[in-house]
């Protein structure tokens, strides 16, 4: 090899983390891999990584600007962004505005029903267990997060929900639900919490307000059409990808 390879820190289903250029930083690389149902369903969607890198940059930098701290520092290229290294809290924090997905199944509330207020749920991050839903009792008893952390995580999740809901509304999209991850950044004796991982159509449910068309990973989960086209539509509405830059799909048979 003629090039020094970067040190890989972690490889997940949709992203790879490499050692960053400075202490306390990492490089987050977005792959084209799509997985659903805990990786039972898999595919490579050409261009998905590029779109999610751009969209996550857009949402995270918007959050940074309004004072909601995130791990995002800057985008480096088409597929990579520089992020702050943080200790990931082992929870998937889900905020729901309308019923869908596992919530719909668990509680038998018809898809699309508006909830009386945003509902925040926590799942324990463990692929072998399929990320089970847990309560604050479990989280406290097993020490996954302190009481103070949980207060901060709830506040963070609701601020992200308000910000994203408004942003989406502005481009004719309803934010049905989303998932964030939260990380700790240590500063001397204390730590602060930041929004980590990614915010993209992989981790949100997004419906067109007028047509109800799904513009998120449900297109892949439910075989509703081209995932790349759906994500490209979201990117175009936010003006984050020039139209010419997204001609990355070869013609495909639609069945
Ligand atoms: O599947 P469920 O209805 O619980 O998902 C709620 C929201 O969280 C959806 O927007 C989904 O895309 C997201 N999610 C995720 N990663 C998971 C589980 C859910 O991004 N592992």
Which fold name corresponds to the CATH topology of the largest domain?
D-amino Acid Aminotransferase, Chain A, domain 1
Helicity level = 25-40%
- Number of structural domains: 2
The Rg value, from CA coordinates, equals 18 Å
Distance between the termini: 43 Å
Beta-strand fraction estimate: 25-35%
- Spans of at least 5 consecutive residues with low confidence: none
Largest sheet, in brief, is: 7 strands, antiparallel
CATH class of the largest domain: Alpha Beta
Q: Give the helix tally.
A: 6
CATH superfamily of the largest domain: ATP-grasp fold, B domain
Number of beta-strand segments: 14
Structural class: alpha+beta
Q: Could you give the order of the helices and strands? A: EEEEEHEEEEHEEHHEEEHH
């Amino acid at each position: 090899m003629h090039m020094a390879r970067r040190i890989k820190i972690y490889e997940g289903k949709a992203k790879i983390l490499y050692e960053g250029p400075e202490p306390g930083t990492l490089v987050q690389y977005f792959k084209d891999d799509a997985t659903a149902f805990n990786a039972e369903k898999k595919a490579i969607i050409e261009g998905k990584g590029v779109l999610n890198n751009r969209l996550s940059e857009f949402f995270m930098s918007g959050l940074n600007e309004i004072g909601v701290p995130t791990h995002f520092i800057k985008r480096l290229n088409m597929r990579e962004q520089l992020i702050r290294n943080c200790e990931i809290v082992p929870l998937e924090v889900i905020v729901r505005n309308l019923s869908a997905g596992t919530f719909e199944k668990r509680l038998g509330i018809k898809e699309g029903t508006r909830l009386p207020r945003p509902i925040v749920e926590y799942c324990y991050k463990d692929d072998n267990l399929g990320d089970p839903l847990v309560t604050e009792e479990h989280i406290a008893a097993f020490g996954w997060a302190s009481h103070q952390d949980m207060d901060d995580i709830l506040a963070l999740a609701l601020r992200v929900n308000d910000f994203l809901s408004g942003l989406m509304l502005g481009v004719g999209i309803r934010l049905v639900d989303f998932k964030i991850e939260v990380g700790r950044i240590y500063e001397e004796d204390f730590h602060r919490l930041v929004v980590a991982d990614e915010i993209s159509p992989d981790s949100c449910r997004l419906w067109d307000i007028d047509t109800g068309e799904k513009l998120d990973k449900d297109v892949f989960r439910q075989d509703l059409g081209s995932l790349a086209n759906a994500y490209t539509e979201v990117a175009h509405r936010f003006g984050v990808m020039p139209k010419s830059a997204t001609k990355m799909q070869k013609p495909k048979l639609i069945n």
